[in-house]
Design a protein that fits this description.
It is found in: Cytoplasm. By secondary structure, the protein is an alpha/beta fold. It contains 14 helices and 10 strands. 46% of the residues lie in helices and 18% in strands. It has a 10-stranded mixed beta sheet with strand order 3-2-1-4-5-6-7-10-8-9, sandwiched between helices. Helix 7 crosses helix 14. Bound molecules: guanosine-5'-triphosphate. Guanosine-5'-triphosphate (GTP) binds next to helix 1, helix 6 and helix 9.
């Protein structure tokens, strides 16, 4: 499906920038337009692929291009004040060619955390196409303020979008590696997962269209109904059928290769589906109770079969208890078979409950510290017997 992506704040901008790079590399054609919005000029300058004219600096009057410094209330305010500037950039894109908006932001900082929900609300008022969010949770080691920001942004963002897809930095940190150092790799993991999901509904004219191919309306239907989503993913390398060349791709002739027998293909798919659903999700949660799911099997068409996808789909129905599990394939000439599973409407998410708890503690601490420091300052400035008079 074709998306208008808007990256809000540094993380949002970098991820959208990476989506453009992914689009370029794979020819997936999912990014119809890409915009970056930020209150920090340097962050906008650091982007590589988003066109200069699509980089929008907001809040200049308030923060002079230096960012809002993790103050997400200020982030929300400057977004509201300068929403027309963002709208101007959106006006320049052909929205009639777009299936949905995707607003991407890190929820722990200030600009994206506060601004993304403001933008989502604005877009929903103006456009009839769905507005989705892709929100990134901060690592637990980032500190109380980031957690508090994320918890508040999460509540607001979910309310303002048609569906909030969540990626949790914390569960993607490599052991012994700071989250910061791993952003490059983490961002690649993000675009790979969401790239396959959204790419599934975007099979080009020249590509083979199997009857079970995923359509963008299936992605939209899976996301409709709102709430929070997570994505599972697993892949396995396969040999491209180079002997058959281009012809085999269109005829589906596998060239009689022994490895490609149907049983192998089916087994590979069913085990990938299990690995994807039971392995690391973008937002860790219990998959039982998921409202809707979409299974996408991507790979060379000779490695995809209906039986495998059907089995995977049925298994997912049993595991989630959902009656709305869609499934289909996404033929593409990459040397891997990949299963991407969108679990939409998840509600049993202990990670969010923990985030909220830590956020409330941080909020209480911040209030206490503020009160204490006011008292301390007064004690310092005022003389004991109150004998001195201030000048005015
Ligand atoms: N996955 C991922 N997360 C990131 C990246 N950069 C930052 N983050 C996360 O996003 C959160 C928000 O950071 P930024 O996006 O830098 O903040 P901002 O929205 O620009 O806001 P301010 O800098 O406060 O104005 C951080 O707490 C990190 O958890 C990135 O490249 N990838």
């Amino acid at each position: 499906m074709k998306l208008a992506m808007i990256g809000f704040g540094q993380a949002g901008g970098k991820i959208v920038d990476r989506f453009l790079d992914y689009d370029d590399r794979t020819g997936s054609g999912i990014v119809r337009a890409a915009i970056a919005v930020n209150s920090a000029k340097a962050d906008l300058m650091g982007l590589k692929n988003i066109p200069q004219e699509n980089r929008v600096l907001i809040g200049q009057a308030r923060v002079k291009g230096h960012g809002v410094g993790a103050d997400n209330e200020l982030g929300a305010e400057v977004a509201e004040e300068d929403i027309d500037e963002v709208q101007n950039a959106i006006d320049a894109i052909p929205t009639h060619e777009v299936d949905a908006f995707l607003v991407v932001a890190g929820m722990g900082g200030g600009t994206g955390s506060g601004g993304a929900p403001v933008l989502a609300k604005h877009l929903k008022r103006i456009y009839t196409i769905p507005v989705y969010g892709l929100g990134v949770l901060p690592g637990t080691d980032e500190g109380g303020i980031y957690t508090l920001n994320a918890a508040r942004s999460f509540q607001t963002f979910v309310r303002e979008v048609d569906n909030l897809m969540v990626f949790d930095n914390d569960s993607w940190r490599q052991t012994g590696e700071s989250v910061e150092g791993g952003y490059e790799q983490i961002n690649e993991e993000i675009v790979r997962r969401f790239g396959i999901l959204f790419g599934a509904g975007e099979v080009g004219d020249g590509q083979e269209v199997a009857e079970s191919v995923v359509d963008s309306s299936e992605i939209i239907n899976t996301l409709s109904g709102g709430g929070v989503s997570t994505v599972g993913f697993a892949s396995e390398e396969v040999d491209l059928n180079t002997g058959g060349g281009l012809l085999s791709r269109f005829t589906g002739d596998a060239g009689g290769d022994d490895n490609l027998d149907a049983a192998n293909t089916t087994n590979r798919i069913t085990s990938l589906v299990r690995k994807a659903a039971l392995g690391r999700l973008t937002l860790p949660c219990e998959i039982e109770g998921t409202e809707r799911a979409l299974l996408v099997l991507a790979g060379p068409s000779e490695y995809l079969n209906r039986k495998g996808i059907e089995r995977g789909r049925k298994w997912l129905e049993e595991e989630t208890g959902s009656m709305e599990v869609r499934g289909g394939d996404y033929p593409r000439e990459e040397p891997e078979v990949a299963a991407a599973i969108l679990l939409s409407g998840v509600t049993n998410v202990p990670r969010i409950k923990r985030l909220q708890q830590v956020a409330i503690e941080a909020q209480d601490n911040i209030d206490d510290i503020q009160q204490e420091s006011e008292e301390n300052l007064e004690e310092l400035v005022e003389d004991d017997e109150d004998e001195l008079e201030p000048l005015f």
